[in-house]
Please model this.
Amino acid sequence: MMRLLNVDEPELEFGGGQPHIDIRFGLKDYGPLDLLSTQSPKAIRLGIVGTSEGVEGFSHWITRCRSGIAAKKSRQPYLFPAFPGHDGKTAFNCEFGTDSLLARELGRTQLSRLGLVNTIEERIKQAVDIFVAEIEHLCEKTRPDVIVCSFPEELSPLLDDPRQTTSYDFHDLLKARAMHVRVPLQLVLPSLWDPSKARKVKRSGVARALQDEATRAWNMHCALYYKAGGTPWRLKRVSTALDTCFVGISFYRSLDRANLSTSIAQVFNERGEGVVIRGSVATVSKEDLQPHLREEDAFQLLKEALKLYKREHHNLPARLVVHKTSPYSDGERTGFDQAVAEADISTHDLLHLRPSDLRLYRDGVYPPLRGTTLELESDQFILYTKGSVPFFQTYPGMYVPRPLDVRVVSSEQSIRFLAHEILGLTKLNWNTTQFDGGDPVSIQASRVVGQVLRFCGEEQIIAPRYGFYM
Model:
């Protein structure tokens, strides 16, 4: 029998252990989770690579953000709060700064020569080469905490030619090629500080809609703080809850499309701390046309994940949760079960998550509330991770939201518990401070990691932290 549930918005934990459901108000009122830690960033040195205009534009903007950015005028003030600044005493309790010694300017002659290259793929490769060379020079002389790569406006038409298609992506290739310098990168566009330079929609030629400036400032500072090693927030823990390890598994094709490899994102805890590992080659089943691991590969993958979790956190979890983007084969279930049994973990959950084709409707013009859960069977439910948000007093999206379809392959938890947990994991996206994320970080991160890993050679040593991929 179907049953409709309304799952409460999960709380997050900020400085001093203080709770709040909203990320921006939690940071503003209580500071980041690691506020009192001696290891938290107190002053983040930002390197910059870009044209002279790009370096100057970002430098002026980050300086202007120091004293705060006013809120957008709106009927939903909780959706568009002001950015309080970064003077070391507000929000992140951390200063963000740069200087001329932390900047490398790109030569316009180099960039203009890219127009002579025939294919987009080769232009992207050469553009990345130009950036990587300057990143390496920068790191030879100094050691910034994060390197901001200011994407030149003139590169857009060269790398986005509608007459050609390519599987290459500038962002992903740059992250892969610069991984060896061991400094996280943050790619920024000129529209960050100059809305008039917003990219245009291909078909209409109309400039893309931008977030308001205060929201842009919140999101940028959050990403930079996390990439510099900070922990802005975490899921609020109940004292009786088991230590839990979350693993997200998704798949990506190699560049030559010959192999379907496994991407496993962060093996992480409720703080979002963890490591990234790369799995073995997967195959597409002839029965369901979905990618799967062989039994022994599934066993080794989860065994390695638990090994790295223990090395990172100095203990094994009491509970393991695996989120996967394709159905579980019998071989995968057996392999995962064997790894759990060998590690002597008390309980584990195997969940298959995918977008649902089922929709719910409510009276009026607004979609269902975020957290609305429909139990279809004892082992299946749909969950609205995006939807109307009472705290914002509106639906903050632009399109009709699509819920998640969750298949429970193995679990000892109730559907309400699992739905609440997944809802909480959507709030561990360090690229945004608006808490109504669509996918849980387990799935969202594994996809991001896979997009970068496809550009990494088999022998390349990959960075362990998620901050190097996002």
